[in-house]
Amino acid sequence: MKKLLALSGFFATLLFASSCKEEFDYVYYTPEDYSLISQHLNLPELPPKYTAQLPMHLSGTGLFAPEISTEEATLGRVLFYDKNLSSDKTINCASCHKQELGFADNKAVSPGVESRAGQRNAIALSSVANFAAYYGTDLNGSGAIPFFWDNRANTASQQNLETMANPVEMNMKPHEIKAAVEAQAYYKPLFKKAFGNEEITAQRISQALASFVNAMGSYQSRFDAAANAAFNNNQFGIDYHQQFLNLSTLENRGKALYMANCASCHSQNFGRPMKVYSNNGLDETTVDQGVGGITGFASQKGVFKVPTLRNIALTAPYMHDGRFKTLSEVIDHYSTGIKFHPNLGEELRQGNQPIKMQFSSEDKEALLAFFNTLTDDVFLQDERFSDPHK
Amino acid sequence: MKKFLFLLLSHLILVSCSQHYYYAPNTLHLPAVSQKGQISIEASLNGSSQIRGTEVRSAWMPAQNVSVMANLMYLSGSFEQTNFFVFPTPPTELHTGSGHLLELGLSKHFPLSNTNSVFSITSGAGLGRSINTFDKQRKAELNFSRYFVQPAFMSYGKMANVGVGFRFSYLNFYGGTIDYTINESDLYTIKNIEQKAHFLLPDVGFTAGVRFDPIEIRCNITLGLMPQPYQFGFSNHNLSISALTVLDAEQSNKKYTKRKISKKKKRK
Question: At the topology level of CATH, where does A31-218 sit?
Answer without folding.
Answer: Cytochrome Bc1 Complex; Chain D, domain 2 (1.10.760)
